[in-house]
Design brief:
membrane; transmembrane helix; 4-stranded mixed beta sheet; single chain; Homeodomain-like_sf; alpha+beta
């Protein structure tokens, strides 16, 4: 046991470290315990000893009771097998690992044997797991980092959506409890249920890397018309609220494939319809430019 004692005129700071390096409950130094017993033998009461040494009265009483029972104030041996590695041995292993993080357990075992503390490899591994260790990560080249950054930027433009069912009373899933035998029907060990089921609501929502979008309550059973209305009223508005820009990817789950596929055909038709109009406008603009160009050429040739 290594005992660190810092004395000041009015404050005692004490910490008890075991041979395994794990801090136990705080204990008074042995010299201070002897002073408590000496004052008690001289006739002083618990209150006077507590006030003079700045120690709680309960601590004074427990130390005096221990002295009367065992005849000593020293820390008695505790239950359990002693640790194979001492506090000094653990610190030495940590220093070796810091010097060479790639050192093997066999080499650490040999170093520990040279210090006079022979132990198994599993003991050394368990001791080192209590100290900070480096994390494993894949070796990334500049090409990998660039690809990951591009993938991250693409994912920032994704808008995910899904529906969920929320129970208004209780949970339909299994629940596990810690209980004693014969207490299965106690109120604290049961999950209340009702005959009418308690009811539930369906919600549609969307989210992206920037945050959550709109949340819509679905009344009745979902069908093509309702799903299309939800997308018409909330999809673009959610994208605007999340500042996804004019180009983003809409991601939805694979459930309810029938009417979702139908809705996708509608949106594809809308996009094709928009693109057709754009091409018509471009064609008209090009025709007007050609007509003006030919007209200007005729005017220039007539003047010449």
């Amino acid at each position: 046991m290594v005992l660190h004692l810092h004395l000041s005129p009015a404050v005692f700071d004490y910490t008890d470290w075991t041979s395994s390096g794990i801090m136990r409950s705080k204990e008074l130094p042995e010299e201070l315990r002897d002073r408590i017993v000496a004052r008690h033998r001289s006739g002083q009461g618990y209150k006077k000893i507590s006030a003079a040494l700045k120690i709680p009265k309960s601590t004074v009483a427990s130390i005096i009771l221990k002295w009367k029972t065992f005849g000593t104030t020293r820390t008695l041996p505790r239950a359990g097998r002693l640790a194979k590695l001492s506090y000094r041995g653990r610190r030495s292993l940590v220093r070796e690992v810091k010097k060479n993080p790639k050192i093997t357990v066999a080499e650490l075992q040999r170093c520990s044997r040279e210090m006079g503390e022979s132990c198994r490899k599993s003991t050394i591994t368990a001791a080192l797991h209590q100290s900070p260790a480096s994390r494993r990560k894949p070796l990334l080249s500049a090409r990998h980092m660039k690809a990951r950054m591009e993938s991250k930027m693409v994912r920032n433009k994704f808008l995910w959506s899904d529906e969920t069912k929320i129970e208004l009373f209780g949970l339909n899933s299994k629940r596990y409890v810690w209980r004693k035998p014969g207490t299965a029907h106690h109120l604290s060990n049961t999950v209340p249920t009702v005959k009418h089921g308690g009811g539930s609501i369906m919600l549609w929502g969307c989210f992206s890397a920037a945050g959550t979008g709109r949340l819509v309550a679905i009344e009745g059973k979902m069908n093509v018309a309702k799903y299309r209305d939800i997308l018409d009223e909330n999809l673009l508005q959610s994208a605007q609220d999340l500042r996804l820009g004019r180009r983003f990817t809409f991601q939805q789950d694979k459930g309810l494939n029938t009417f979702r596929t139908h809705c996708m055909y509608i949106y594809i038709y809308i996009y094709i319809y928009i693109y057709i109009y754009i091409y018509i406008y471009i064609y008209i603009y090009v025709c007007v430019c050609i007509y003006i160009y030919n007209l200007l050429r005729q005017l220039v040739s007539s003047k010449s």
